[in-house]
Amino acid sequence: MIQAWKNSWPDYLRAHSKPATRALHYLQTIVGGAAILFCLFTGAWAWLALVLAAIIINALIAHFGVEKNSPAAFGEPPWWSVASDIRMTLHWLTGTLAAELEKAGVPR
Fold first, then answer.
1. 17 and 107 in contact (C-beta within 8 Å)?
2. Is the distance from CB of 101 to CB of 13 less than 8 angstroms?
3. Angle, CA of 83, 87 and 89, to the nearest 5°
């Protein structure tokens, strides 16, 4: 299962080829992730549902509105998308995303 997720990485990057799509995903990963952790640690369960809804809406806007494709979560286990969002964001934060995009054949 882990190997299948690793093999889907180039496809994930190609589905996030536009900088605006990636930027919306960085936002949802960082802000949404922080909000989820806050809800979990404070027990704000009602807010957790709103945060998750906001993350999903953001992804739909990024894919249908910007990228003009379907979110990867529609065709794969949802946790693959979450893990790939985190992976892409970490590559972006560490300055290694350009090399990953190039390996995946994402045009500049």
1. yes
2. yes
3. 115
Q: Are 39 and 48 in contact (CB under 8 A)?
A: yes
pLDDT classification of 100: cutoffs 50, 70, 90: very high
Residue range 13-70, pLDDT digits in tens:
999 999 999 999 999 999 999 999 999 999 999 999 999 999 999 999 999 999 999 8
Q: For residue 26, give every residue at least 6 positions away whose Cβ sits within 8 Å of its Cβ, in sequence order, or none.
A: 88, 89, 92
Task: Count the domains in the chain.
Answer: 1
Rounded to a whole number of angstroms, the CA Rg of the chain reads 14
Q: Give the Cα separation of 84 and 9 in Å (integer).
A: 7
Inform me whether the pLDDT recorded for 5 exceeds 70: no
The residue range of the domain holding 64 is 19-104
Residues 38, 75: Cα–Cα separation, whole Å: 29
